[in-house]
């Protein structure tokens, strides 16, 4: 397993970023200011993580995605661990926002994240079309926080 930081041509990873955030316009709002980390297994791209600095003590994961055929193999967890270890020296908190998908929420909670608040109607107000996960339309953005 190898994790690399991408500093140029970040849009080259748009196809995998679109797995974590289905709207290219939304990705374009954060991609250039993000630190992009990609995970390769045997030289094959499996996962991506986009991280931004929120303030002097908080970083935020804006996108975490794994190609479907590589999911449930620990790659996203490895990226979270990498991000935590990389940033814990200079930051206190790691936050992220996600939709109301029980599988996704359980994934993050198992890794030490706790729900802090919700942004009502985020997906309805900010996306041009309805977003569905596991057959359920996403409405509110659920924010989670972890102490690094």
Q: Which spans of ≥5 residues are poorly predicted at pLDDT below 50?
A: none
Which whole number gives the mean pLDDT? 95
Q: What is the CATH level 1 assignment?
A: Alpha Beta
Please give the count of helices: 5
Structural class: alpha+beta
Give the SSE order as H and E letters: EHHEEEHEHEHEEE
Q: CATH topology, which one?
A: Aminopeptidase
Number of domains: 1
Portion in beta strands: 35-45%
Radius of gyration: 15 Å
Termini gap:
23 Å
Instruction: Tell me the number of strands.
Output: 9
Under CATH, the homologous superfamily reads Gcn5-related N-acetyltransferase (GNAT)
What percent of residues adopt helix (DSSP H or I)? 25-40%
The CATH architecture term is 3-Layer(aba) Sandwich
Shape: globular
Could you give the order of strands across the largest sheet?
1-2-3-4-5-9-6
Largest sheet: 7 strands, mixed
Brief overview:
The chain has 148 residues and is α+β, with helices and mostly antiparallel strands. 28% of the residues lie in helices and 38% in strands.
Can you offer a commentary on this structure?
The protein is an alpha+beta fold and 148 residues long. It has one domain: 3-Layer(aba) Sandwich (Aminopeptidase), CATH 3.40.630. Helices cover 28% and strands 38% of the residues. It has helices at residues 14-20, 24-30, 75-87, 102-110, 122-126; strands spanning 2-6, 35-41, 44-55, 58-66, 93-98, 114-119, 132-133, 136-137, 141-147. The chain has a seven-stranded mixed β-sheet, sandwiched between helices. A two-stranded antiparallel ribbon has the order 7-8. Strand 3 (44-55) and strand 4 (58-66) form a beta hairpin. It is globular and about 35 Å long. The relative contact order is 0.16. The model has no long low-confidence stretch (mean pLDDT 95).
């Amino acid at each position: 397993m190898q994790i690399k930081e991408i500093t140029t041509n970040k849009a080259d990873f748009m196809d995998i970023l679109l797995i974590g955030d289905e709207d290219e316009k939304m990705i374009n709002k954060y991609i250039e200011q993000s630190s992009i980390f990609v995970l390769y297994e045997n030289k094959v791209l499996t996962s991506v993580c986009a991280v931004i600095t929120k303030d002097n003590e908080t970083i935020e994961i804006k996108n975490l995605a794994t190609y479907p055929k590589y999911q449930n193999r620990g790659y996203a967890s490895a990226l979270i661990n990498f991000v935590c270890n990389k940033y814990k020296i200079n930051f206190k908190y790691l936050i992220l926002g996600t939709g109301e998908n029980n599988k996704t929420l359980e994934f993050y909670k198992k890794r030490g994240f706790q729900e802090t608040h919700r942004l009502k109607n985020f997906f309805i107000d900010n996306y041009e079309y309805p977003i569905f996960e596991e057959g359920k339309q996403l409405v509110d953005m659920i924010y989670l926080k972890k102490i690094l």
